[in-house]
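Researcher: Structure prediction, please.
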Amino acid sequence: MISLSTVGQSLNKGAMRMLGTLVAAAVALTLIAWFAQERWWYVAVLPLYLGFCTYMFTGEKRTYFWWCCAFVCLVIATHSAGDAPNTLNSAVLRVQQTGMGILVYTLVSVLLWPSDTRGALDEATRKLFTTQAKLYRTYHGLLSGHGAAEDSRPLRLQEVQLLSQHEQALRGAQTDCYEVWEARHKWWRFHRLSAALMETLEHWRESFPEIQSLDLSKLLPNLEAVRTELNQRFEEIERMLAGEVPTHSPQPITLAIDKAAMNALTHFQKAAVAVAVAKFELDRLGALNRSLFDSVKDIKGYGRQVSSPLPEDTRAGGEAGLDPDRLQASVKAMAATWAAFLIWFYVDPSGHESFVEMSIILLMASVMMRLSPVTVVKALFLGALFAGLAYVFVMPHLSGYFELGAMIFGATFAIYYIFWQPQQALAKAGAIAMFLNIIAVQNQQTYDFAGYANTIAALLLAGGLAIASMYLPPSPRPEKQFLRLLGRFFRHSEHLMSRLALDWKQKRGMVDRWKTVLIPSQSTGAATEAGGVGRKARPPGVFRQQSRARAGPGHQPPRARLSDQGAGRNA
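Model: Predicted structure follows.
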């Protein structure tokens, strides 16, 4: 379960699993101690904990840790429900088994096939920045009218994948490489700057339709000089990542604007040039480029970092906002838990407590991987069929550990060899999980086809409950999710823009303050970034005073609701 492409990534995942198992065991024992004789309180509180873990592992930080906190607690809690005296033994056994598995994998990885992931990190870093440099040059061609925006789509998809691979490689390398661990803060700074560069390039590309019809060479006299300087910086960073000494030092650049040419434009054109491209994107792109140059120079040992951190490194607001999508996933996980327990109490389907475990785990796995439960159930069902062949036709003919070990090794090798590609990770996990679960190796091995058939039936019933829970309102269908997200964008935009209205008051009450807090942090982060590098956003009062000065005394501008203007967005 913790096996990944490199030793460092596997050890890091093993550490997250061990910590999650310890937390889950403590929570499960606490709940059982509190509600040993109160099953309804037990059923009421356990889903709340699982819902909290679901909200946490659908985020971006420590996903696997929170996933282990959820499903291990569920396994211990359900197995102990009918055997309370052995609850402590069950929890301790789970912790011991997890620790022993991680220890065995660590010894095999370090002693049998040792490898250093520093080379994988360097390769991932080089590929990521090379792709971003290609995107920058492609976007400059688009700005000049060469090529189409769709031509850059493969590079954009590759950039997203490489950024994720770089994060995994960095987490693994800092675990098994002492040099990377010592410089981990520098490496993480490079990763954050790369993510900010990806975001800036995307903002820049999206602003092209508004400015491509303008004469940029006249509006921005030194645009070509800025482009040349940025190109040289990209080339020097690529040179350093390849292990060569830089030959060019970054020079200060500032994008100049011809005020006379700007005054001849309309207000929307001025906004597009002054904010979306000139003063925001290109200035910020230059600052990010310079910070990346200094960061790589420091990591490679060609000199110490001299530039100051960008404001985006420490965003205001953090993650205080609540994400409605994650809240929906949390509510669905709690609803599935309550439904599974009620079905177990009053119907007692095949699998008994295993039905409860599989129902909730299938739903939480679908939420975490952002997949349909049908896809997850299909992968587990195919794995169960493969395991059934070994359990029914092969294992009854085995005697002794040598034959059993050869069978387990061969099956595991075949699964990991066939499903080796990253896009086959779900099939690999489903096959190996059902194989180990169904063969159920014991010191005194027994075989029961009825038990295997009940496991298949429980899997299908649990899959049905998971699918039904996932399709609780709101619908998970992509076209419905898109419309909901679009409507939420307009509502949030309307609320934020209303703060700039002439009659807006600083203190609107508790409801409006909560409405602002509940807007996801991504929206507030984007609003913060719109201020640009080194510039502070002006308070609403400044805009109101400027609006009155332009409009003249007694003028009241019309207040059009964004939702009314966008009435056709549901088409």
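Model: Residues 267-299 form the longest helix (33 residues).
Researcher: Thanks, that helps.
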